[in-house]
Write a structure and sequence with these properties.
The chain is an alpha/beta fold and 259 residues long. Helices cover 40% and strands 14% of the residues. The protein has one domain: Rossmann fold (3-Layer(aba) Sandwich), CATH 3.40.50. It has a seven-stranded parallel beta sheet with strand order 3-2-1-4-5-6-7, sandwiched between helices. This is NAD(P)-binding protein.
Length: 259
Amino acid sequence: MSTTNDLSFQGKVAIISGSGRPNGIGAAIAAALAVRGACVTINYISESSAPKAAEVAESIRAKGGKATVVRGDVGIPEEARKLVKETLAAFNTDKIDILVNNAGIAPMTPTVDVTSEEMTSVFHANVQGPLLLVQAALPYMPRGGRIINISTCLSRMGQHSPVYTASKAALDSLTFTWALEFGRKFGITVNAIAPGLTKTDKAPPADHPEVVRMLDMTRLEGRMGTIEEIADSVLLVASPLSGWITGQYISVSGGVNWI
């Protein structure tokens, strides 16, 4: 049993993709890691998001944390590599301890209306992006490193957003495969955090029919989760306390039951 503070991330370096929205899950994860000592990279994709990403980083620095901001579409190989290289340079380090694959898009388009362009864009962001970022970061991840994929409880429910949920099911599958592939060879753990309905600036209104249906399935308090509650679950699997937890799909949904 460790005698140290196992929720301290002092000296750790973390990349959180898609973390440039102040009221988003990625930003909450970055803030939670930074306040506990980690150096964090805030990542965003579009120029219009630059001011918000800067706001996330400034908020972290104002509390004494260390943050850098890197623009890049992780679904493009050279931009995924750029994100890693600029992180190493910003913190004058040769390692990436924690990689959180959070960037993604979630259209609600019914199957009959999905276009090939939308299919391509969803899998580009939600599957290709994590895979390319893992490829870029893996050479710099030490033994004991953590890869955490942000999935969704919908990936096992067969409801809503067919292309989005299919892409997250693919990410779940990669999680299980990577846990074996990287665990045996490199001693890195890989887990999926699967949020339920979470209150962000992109969440649908509380009276939306699908929200009502999901809230009826939530066993704890019948409410949306908060971005801080999702971040807390990431802290747990990123910490030394979870050194023997890998290849797991962890539902952080207030007890949504998909059976």
